[in-house]
Amino acid sequence: MFAKSSEKSEMLCEASVLLRQVAEPRVVGESVKSAIARTGRALGWRFSRTREVWYGRARRIDAFEMDRLRDAARDIERTAQRLLALRDALAAKDALFHRDDIGALERALRGLGCDAGPADLREDQGARDA
After folding, report:
1. Which one, 12, 35, 74, 128, has least CB within 10 Å?
2. pTM above 0.85, yes or no
3. First and final C-alpha spacing in the chain
């Protein structure tokens, strides 16, 4: 049984969105073509296939392709959660001492599309823990 046209359209839209999420973080000045090529290599897809899904022009999306995209997106989410937990642990331990590391973690989180607020960098943090 064939999927309805609207279901195909929804799957293609989801695939395109997931593919763009997997492409993040992109380097400043990176062209779309280069992001498509890099993402395709990471997924093990041909450039032309990746481009068609990226722009929503693919005729179909196979189940194994959707599974691969969803797995890659979940990997990114798990990585973001781990980075967030590390940032919060460093901030709780001694935010001033670890401020450079916390800043780097926050930049990495923003690059992954995580909208995490800044860590608490109060001056009295280290004094409270002593």
Report:
1. 128
2. no
3. 67
